Every structure is written in C-alpha cells, then in structure tokens.
Amino acid sequence: MTASPLDNLSAQTDELLATVAAFDSLEQLVEGEPFVTGKRSILSALQKSLGQLAPEDRKDAGALLQEARRRVEAAFDERRATLTSAARAQALEADRLDLGDVVVAQVRAPYTAGHPGIVAATQRQLEDVFIGMGFTVADGPEVESDWYNFEALNIPPAHPSRGMWDTFYVDLGEPETVVLRTHTSPTQIHLMEAAVQSGTLPIHSVMPGRCYRRDTPDARHLAAFHQIEGLVVDRGITFADLAGVIDTFTRAYFGADIQSRLRPAFFPFTEPSAEFEITCTLCRGEGCRTCSQTGWIELGGCGMLDPAVLEAVGIDGDEWSGFAFGFGIDRCAQMRHQIADMRALIENDVRFLRQFS
Amino acid sequence: MKIPLSWLREFVALPDSLSDLIATMDDLGLVVEGVEHVGEGLEDVIVARIDAIAAIVGADRVRLVTVDAGQGPLDIVCGATNFALGNHVPLAPVGAVLPGGFAIAERKMRGVTSNGMLCSSRELHLSDDHAGLMLLDEMITPVVGQKLTDALGIVADVVLDISIEGNRPDAWSIVGVARDLAARFGVALRLPEVTTPDAGVATSSTVRASLDAPELCGRLTVSLLENVIVGPSPAHLAQRLTMAGMRPISNVVDASNLVMLELGQPTHPYDADHVDGRTIGVRAARVGETLETLDGTVRPLAQPGRGLGDAGDDCVIVDGSDRVIGLAGVMGGASSEISDATTAVLLEAAYFDPMTIARTSKRHGLRSEASNRFERGVDPTLALYAVGRFVALLRESSPSVVWCAEPLDLHGTTPTPPTVTLREGDVERTLGVAIDGPEVKAILEALDFTVDGGTTLQVTPPARRLDVRAGAAGRADVIEEIARLYSYNRLPRRTPTWPQPGGLSERQKVRRRLRDALVDLGMSEAWTPSLVSEAEFDLLHPGVARVRITNPLASEESVLRTTLVTGLVQAWARNAERGLGDVVLGEIGTVFTHPDATTTSRQTRGGANGAVALTLPHENERATIVFGRADDSALTAVAFWQSVATRLGLVEVTVRSTAAPAGLHPTRAACLTTADGTVIGYVGEVDPQLVEGVANVPTRRLGVLDLDLDVVFRVVANASNDQRVSVPSRYPSASLDLAFVVPDHLHAGDLAATLRGSSELVESIELFDVYRGEHLPSGTRSLAYALRLGAADRTLSEAELAQLRSGLIATAAALGAAIRS
Question: Residue B335 pLDDT more than 60?
C-alpha cells in the first residue's frame, strides 16, 4: 500500500485549529484566512493531491478531507464571531458616556423649530370642531377581536358584509378571531359597554385613530389610515340631530359655503344609514374632475345606531337612541391641502414634512 | 350594475331630463357612478369597401388605402393592418364628428392626402375593441355607402352604471330599479310579459328532481324545454346584453343572463340529454367528494373553511347517478353545457341559502354573477315567473320551444317575512319629523309592503325584501324605507346640545402638550409603518415571540412593530440617501408586544357571540425622536429631553446610565427615572448595529429619545394638576460653587438632590462642570455645582453662609463625596 497524501491529515488539522485559536484580532483573522481555509491552505493543496489516488480510494479520502475542512471552517467562523463581538464590546467601551453627568448648559443645542405631522394636525383640528360642539374624545386599541371589530357591530361571522372590509388577520387565537381594526367603530362598542357597566350614559364622543385595510397602496389609499368616528347615545336623539351635526361640522371645518347632503346607504351597524357628501371643496360645487362634474364629493358614512348593536351592548333601545358617523382624517388632509398622492404621507421625505406647520 | 335606459324605460316612465333622473336615483340610494352615451355621434359614419392597399414611401407604420363608400374611390391613410381587399369597414368621412367630439378633416402626410378615417370599434364608442378596424363582414351583410347605424341597427342609448348597496338585492335588477323609481314618481310599474307552461305531457314523466338539503336550498324548480333551436340571439337582445356589460353567447345562455339582469333571478340551463337520468338533485356535498370546475381545478368539497362558523357546507347539484355536476348557485360543470346540438334544456331556477353560497364562494375563491346574487338573497317566490320570462325571450329566436307542463317545484326552508309593528310616533322618534299615516302607507304599499292597522301599523314586507328583520331591528329597516322614499334631504336638521361638557381627557391634553413641545423644540413628525419585516424584528429581538399578520400584503410588512426606533432610523436613512439627513424625526405611535413576551397582555372576548376569552398583545403608546443632524449625539438627546421635561413640568426626572434596551447604544444610553424609581423612557444613541442593519448610507451617531407615554401621561397628570408655586424671597440670595470628588457609583443628580434637600435655605443647585483626569483617584470624577442660597425672611449673614457651607460639605461627605480644595 502506497502512502496516502492524507496520512498526516489529523495532525495538520490540529495545527490549523491551533492557528485559528491563536488569532487575536480581526485583522489577524483576515490576514490569516487564505492560509487556513483559503487557496493557500494546506487543505487546498491536499484537495489537489487527491488526483494521485486510485479512483476507488478517492471517495473516502475526499470525505475525510471534507470533514477536516468543515471542522476548520467552523472553528474559523466561531473565532470570527468571538473576535467580532469582542471588538464591538471594546469599541462600545471606548465610546462609553455617563449621561447622568451631562452638563446641560454645555450641550444646549441650537434648536430650530420642527413641523407637526399633517395627519396629527388635521386630527387635532377635527377634534377641536367636535369639542366645540360638546363632544369628548376617546382612544381605542388597534388590535381587536372579531367581536368588537365585527360581530357586536352586527356583522356576523362569515357574513358577506365582512367582505366590505379587506381585513388583516392577526395570528392569535382561532383563525380570523383577531384583526387589525378595519375602522374605529370597535371603540364605539368599548365606550357603550363601559357606559352601560358604569351607568354613565349618555355618550357624546368622537374617536380618532389608526386603522388598517388590506388594500394595495395607491394615490388615494394606504393600507394604514386614520379615521375619526362620532357616537351619540342619548334620550330623544333622531336622524334630524345626525343631519344637523354633520351639517354644523361641515361648515365649521370646511367653510361656511360648503354644504352637506345625505343619501341612503348600507352599513350593518346603522339603520337608517347614509353616505354624507359635501360640496366639492376644489370647485366649490361648480363641477370639476375631482367630483366627476357632480359638484359633490363623498366624505363618509353615518346613520342611526342599529337596534342589533344596541342589543349587543345591552342598551335599552326604547329609552336610548343614537347615531354614529365616520370619515377619513387622511382624506380630509388630502382634500384641504390638495395632496396629489397619499403615499407622500408615509414616505417621510423631509421636503414634504417641512411644508407643514 | 349597468342599466341601459331603453331597457329601464320598458318598466317605468322616466323623466325627460337625464340629470333629474340621476339626482333621483342618487337620492334613492341607487348611486349613479357612471354615465355612458352609446351609439351617439355616428350619424356621419358610413360603410366602405377596401378596394386597394398601397405602401407610402418613407412610412412604415401607415399605408394608403383606397375605399369605395358609394361615391367613387377615396384615399385614406390608415395605421391598422387587420383587413384585406374586399372587407367592409366603417368610414368617418371629412366633416364627420366622432363620439367624444373628434372632428375629421382632410390631412396631408408624407405627400399624400387622407380623406377621412377608417374606424375601430372603440373609436366609435361601441366597445373596448381597439385591436384594428371594425370588420363589418363578421357581423352583417354590408352594403357600401349605408349608414353604419342603419347597417348595425344601433339606437342611441344611455347606460347608467349604478352601485347597489349590499342590503338591497331586490334592487339589483332592471325591474328592481324600476320599482323604486315608480314608487318615488308615483307611477305604475309595468312588469314584463311572461308565458306559462304549455299543456301536454307533465314534466315529471321524463324528468326527476330531488331536494335533500332543505336548509341549504329553499326552493328548487326544474323545467323541461323541448324543441329548442340553439343559435345567436336577435340583434336587439344581443345589443342589450352588450350594453349591460355581458357577452352574447347563444340564445339559451343569453336568455338566462337577460332574465338575471332584468329580474334578479339566476337560472341555470343544462343540456337535458347530457344530464344522467334527466335528474337535477340538490344536496349537501359529502366529505371526500370532489368537483372539477370549468377552470380545470379539482376541488375537494365539504372541507371546513378558515373563517369562523364555516363548517364546510357545500350545496351541490347532482345528476341521476348522484354524481356532483355543479356547485349550486356558484358554477356549473362542463359536461352538461348548452351546445349548438342541444334540443332539450333542463332549466334550474332556485333559491339557495345566502350564507351557504357566500361561504362556498369564499372558500373556493369562485365568484359569478349568480353567486353574487344568491349570497345577497334572491326573491324566493320568483323562480317560475323568471322561467316564464326566459321562455318568452327564447321564443323570439326559437319560436317552437315547448315549456313542458307542471314544472317540478320542490320547497325547502325559506325565510318567513316578519310582521313589523310600527307604533304611533315611531317614525318621528327615529327621523325627527312626523310623516302622516296615509303617506307612510302609500310609500310602503308602493314597494309592495302589506300595511294593516290605524295608529299602530302592522307592516309585512314582500318576499323579496330579505333585508327586513323582525322586532326593533325590523322597525328600523321599515323606517329607513320610509325615509328613503320620502327623501333624506327633505328630513329636518337640528343641531343637538346637551348639558355634559365636551373636551379632552387628561391623557389627551398631555399628548397635545407633549407633541407641541416636541415640535417646538425641533421634531418633524413622521408616520412610519406599524408593520415591519421578520428580519427587522430579528435585528432587535431575535427569537422573541412576535405578533404576526396571517395574510400580509407583503413580507416586508408582516409583523407588528415593537419600537418606533427602527422605522425612524429608516426614515432618516431615506432622507440621508437624498442628502437630506440633517433632520430630527419623531413619531407618536403604538407599539405591540406578543402576549407570550409580556405580563401585561390585554384580556378581551371574541369568537362567535363574543363568548371566547382572548389574549391580545400589549399596546403601548410611545413618543420616539431620532436626532440625525451632523453633530447630534446622546448629548443632543439629553439636552432635548431636559427642555421637554421643563415644558411638561417633569423636573424631578433624572437621567441614569443603564443597561440599554434593544435598539439603543449599549454604553451610551440612560433611563429617565422619576423620584419613585418609575422609568418613563430612555435617552441616548441608536445602537450602531441597528443603524448599519437598516441604512444603506454611511452611518453617523443618531441621538434618540424614547418615551413611554402610558407612564408619561400618568406622571405628568399627577405633577401638573395641583402643582404648588412658591413666591421667591424678596431678600438677595447668595451664590456658592462647590466641587466634589465623587465616586463613579454616586449619581450626579442624586448628590444634587440630597444637597438641595439638606436645607430649606438651598434655593437651587445646578451641575456646571464634570472633570475626569490624572489628578483624581481612579473610579472618581469631579463634579462642580452652582448653588443659590437664601431665606424667605432675611438676607443670610456671612456666619450663616459659612455654617450652611460646612453642612453641605458634611452631607456630601456622608455620601462619599469629598470637597475639592
């Protein structure tokens, strides 16, 4: 039997492992790489020498060599991770700064005023109009159960009307029981449940917040958006009150020459339901491309609380009645500031942000 | 739904003014979304024959075509190539004005003169076809020089595209729309002519029907039509279908589609000779059964779906061998399709349970015009009337059709229309206006509701009004119908007032103060995505439980964020890529923690009837600011924080170096701690590893301030509500500088607070210098404080000041801080 080129493989491997273990810095590691695992490594030389072997021996020898290479490379990677982490720790240590000792007078930065977000600022303007009309403001969570987002709002499981909302489902609980809220309406349910429990009806609230729909973003839609919703539950509330609130709000927010009108629509949680439209803010009702020459643009939905919703939250519909309405905050911002493409709102380009104050 | 006015006018008299009609339809909730004028502006277009085609020198996109339109040869330059010599095509001669206002004039190009335009179907607004010239030989036997409108039998029409709300399946048909309009205008509804079954041999002598799923199928009718001659529909019916947006196929299929559009009842024709045993059965699919649909997909049936309450019920059509040949109400199978050879037709007209159709359609991802109607609810009484209309339409092209006697008619479970009680005053209590009894009655009866009683009315909807519920909900449904026909815009408006005050909650007030402070101090407010990628999540929390979206639009946005820092760093990086990195970006928003990764998850209820206890992620509102200007660092962030703290009255909050939370620089981070040890946020720099991980630009130090607003709101509200303000002393105060050698473990703020609290004569204390260096023992640094000392009732004497100084030095010494000499 002739001598195999791999006779010394075990010792050679140990030597390489020792070399790897001796690397003390990332620089050494980089310099040493060709000699350990790279082209100039003994392993590469041995690889070439396999050709001398009889064909029947090559397979086993190749496997041995492969195993040796795997061990060396693993050791090398581990050493690199150790050294990287040590280098990071060292760099961080050199960078250490005790922020408890900061002398504020010495670092006082020259400030230039910033810019509020256009959505947040619009939301505040809207809130203020409603506060002036006697509404409180309520917040609610963004992850909701199907009960709050759908069922208590008279949208039963698997009902086709759920198709009105393109829903993001959250991977918790049974399938399709947890959602990113598709509208701010679940906050209505929370408010009514809480008021029933604490005996604090009536409710006059608006509920702004971020909502989500599984809708590919385009110039008019984003997958996340902001909505403001209004809810009134009181004695003797009628459709006339709803129409009056919509009208007062429209004129207060958009201007005295902007009118509102209602037309029949369907929402599972209100009955009677309506879409509300306002005079096109661009052409002031003359007719233009934005309003398809009609002079009107659709703003949102509204209606008298459906008896099924009152029942779901345990409110006596013979004593109390109410209405709800809702519309997009982003859309109001888009209309008022004539934002050509909604996607600018999430791109956070400072040239966009700086225009708004 | 597209509605040709000529079709609608057959059933109801319409006003002359189109804009009045559209306004009325909008007001009824039949919202007009588009108006299309068809067949107008074609008066000048005539039929021409292609007599010669020649190349034009120097032009390779157009050719010179010589045509004859009855007045000798005309040269036309034409870019289309889909025609040959002898073909007949539409010609718009010089002087013609095409639909859309395009005027045809003589044009010279490449040295030749073009005397008109040869037209595509789209150029004439007749269809969307723009693949080439409209080839008339395929449609008619053309006569050169004839007017195109005469040649094709085109009558000018208007097509309205209207959207029907989900609760109005009864209006989702030409007749349904006509019914609303007739009721509003107070005119008669003219229902279409229908035929009745012929006398003779009973259907049951050769045809079988079975209904084994009465819950899924409320009614199954099967009619046998014999002596059917399959062929094209007459031109006016084909045009009607085209205008309504459907493609003509054959007279039998077209009749089925026309009936569906006109009445709202889907029907399904089968070739009777290709249905085993001439049997149409309806039953629930069994587990293990499959159906190959027309698209070639083999679909397993009766498999429970993902959606809540979807048990997997599929209602199927079976033949005489009990073999599944179609998904009821959704899609038929290929084997029994109508062909040119069909002579006998089995016509199925049925009512299927809307929820079953909806779930089947969703589960299999199959939608059809029929399923869309069935899932909203088809009039359960309409089936045989619709077949009568089908036969009447079919006889226009196949006059000898026989509708065999006694069509099979099986009944399952259909909804019983409720009787709704309308008490005196109910209408006024909901609408805010009293509409008198006779008017209410007239409105409801015009919509075929049955109305009984005097002051209290008993109202029963017609079978087609599946939207009307029982009890209080039904009352609301009926009142909506009254309001709709009365007109929403005739209802009064009144702005309500109430004694309860409006306003913001404490939390909301603090949020506004905070936002104002942040903006005033330099933050530009961003809006970053709530959803991040798995990789971005792993940058900060490898291996930690995360809140995943089951059906994300893209993997880049599939996990709910746990921090605002990552998104803001990305926003900074995108600006930096454009050379605009000198910016302070911040956001106030919500972050989410998976229930398995927190002890404060939210308990709520969900599932059917809200009966299941659910654990939801913890939601935490945060305000995060990233400082990206050239020289920004942790120091900028600390200084910024101090100003914010001043604005919010959080003077007792101290900055303490701490183990950094994920995303912050491990050795340049501090927590913001109130006197009782509550952490309200962090300040420092962004972890350089994170910056490198998300930015494609050269990185720099990014300062960061990250506030937990759930805590801030509580602390600020407590601090500012009953804040005591003291009147400064009228006597002069003295200043005193003290420098101490302080061990590293003693916090500069703690020492200051202790000194300040050691005597009521200490008015204020402020750190003004920090020194580390060779002259100091290792593990210590020098801290120098400026103090103001004074009393409310006197000027402090030299002796008092000296005593006070010794006291302060002793207090510091007790903490391990030695006075520097």
Answer: yes
On whether the CB atoms of residues A116 and B515 are closer than 8 A, the answer is yes
Res A351 pLDDT > 80 = yes
Asked whether the CA dihedral B389, B391, B394, B400 is positive or negative, the reply is negative
Q: Does A263 touch chain B (CB under 8 A)?
A: yes
Q: How far apart are the first and last CA of chain A?
A: 88
Chain A residues within an 8 Å CB radius of B495: 133, 241, 244-245, 247-248
- Count how many Cα atoms sit within 13 Å of the Cα of residue A140 in the half-sphere of its side chain: 32
**Does the beta-carbon distance from A351 to B580 stay under 8 Å?**
yes
Buried b (16+ CB within 10 A) or exposed e, A290-316: ebeebbbbbbbbbbbbbbbbbbbbebe
A287 to chain B, any CB pair closer than 8 A? The answer is: no
B524-525 vs B584-593, strand pairing mode = parallel
Q: How many CA atoms lie within 13 A of B456 on its CB side?
A: 4
Q: Is the pLDDT of residue B308 over 70?
A: no
The predicted structure's pLDDT at residue A124: 97
Q: What is the pLDDT of residues A163-206, one digit of tens each?
A: 777 899 999 998 889 999 999 999 999 999 999 999 999 999 99
Spatial separation of the C-alpha atoms in residues B135 and B548, rounded to whole Å:
56
Residues of A in contact with B531 (CB under 8 A): 224
- The ipTM of this complex is 0.87
- Which of A96-100, B266-270, B406-410, B781-785 is the least confident region? A96-100
CA B482 to chain A, closest CA, distance in angstroms equals 10
Task: From chain B, pick out residues whose CB is under 8 angstroms from the CB of A158.
Answer: 305, 307-310, 355, 358-359, 362
Looking at beta carbons, which residues of chain A come within 8 Å of B640? 109, 111
pLDDT-above-90 percentage for chain A: 57
pTM: 0.87
* pLDDT mean over B379-385: 97
Residue type, B682: Y
How far apart are the CA of B224 and the nearest CA of chain A, in angstroms?
33
Strand partners, B473: none
Residue whose C-alpha is closest to residue B193's, from B384, B383, B388, B3 = B388
Measuring CA to CA, which residue among B447, B450, B440 is closest to residue B486?
A: B440
The DSSP output letter for B191 is P
Give one DSSP letter per residue of B319-363, joined into a string: -TT--EEEETTTEE-STT---TT---EEEEEEEE-HHHHHHHHHH
User: What gap in Å lies between CA B657 and CA B669, rounded to an integer?
Assistant: 6
Handedness of CA B457, B458, B461, B466 (dihedral sign): positive
Helix axes A55-94, A9-22, angle to 10 degrees: 10
Nearest to residue A227, comparing CAs of A121, A353, A331? A331
- Cα–Cα distances in Å, from B741 out to A102, B735, B744, B748, B805? 16, 20, 9, 11, 16
d(CA B368, CA B260) in angstroms, rounded, equals: 12
Q: Please classify residue A94 by burial: count the beta carbons closer than 10 Å to its beta carbon, then call 0-12 exposed, 13-18 middle and 19+ buried.
A: exposed
| H or E element at residue B537 | helix B534-540
A193 close to B (CB below 8 A): no
- Find, in chain B, the residue whose alpha carbon is nearest to that of A160: B358
The first and second tokens of residue B226, run together, are: 């014999």
Mean pLDDT of chain B: 92
Identify each DSSP E strand in A245-339 by its residue range: 260-264, 270-279, 296-305, 321-328
Q: Spell out the residues 6+ positions from residue B444 whose beta carbon is closer than 8 angstroms to its own.
A: B451, B459, B478, B481, B482
The pLDDT mean for chain A works out to 90
The model's pLDDT over B626-674, given as tens digits with 9 standing for 90+, comes to 999 998 999 999 999 999 998 898 888 899 888 889 999 999 999 999 9
On the question of pLDDT at A1 being above 50, the answer is no
